[in-house]
Amino acid sequence: FSAVVDGYKAVLEYRTVDENTVDFCHTFVPDELRGKGVAAVLAKAAFAYAKEQQLQVIPSCSYIATYMQRYPQ
């Protein structure tokens, strides 16, 4: 998952563990975009995809783990 804002690219990297599981393993937001909610937008899109595909999520990325605690739905 990625987003380009003002010419800067933010990414949420993932790995497919098996046919039912995805690991959200790394989130990167350039300094120029931090604090603007870009990572949250990427996380929301990634979780929507996982839900649509009926995938279990492993939150290897600390940002994603925190996001899951804040938004358990």
Explain this structure to me?
With 73 residues, this protein is of the alpha+beta class. The chain is 33% helix and 36% strand. The chain is built from two helices and four strands. Strands 1-2-3-4 form a four-stranded mixed sheet. The two termini are 20 Å apart.
Summed up, what is this model?
By secondary structure, the chain is an alpha+beta fold.
Beta-strand percent range: 35-45%
Oligomer, anyone? single chain
Kindly name the structural category: alpha+beta
The number of distinct β-strands equals: 4
Task: Supply the key terms.
73 residues; alpha+beta; 4-stranded mixed sheet; 4 strands
Write the layout of secondary structure elements.
Layout: E1 2-5, E2 8-18, E3 21-28, H1 38-52, E4 56-58, H2 62-70
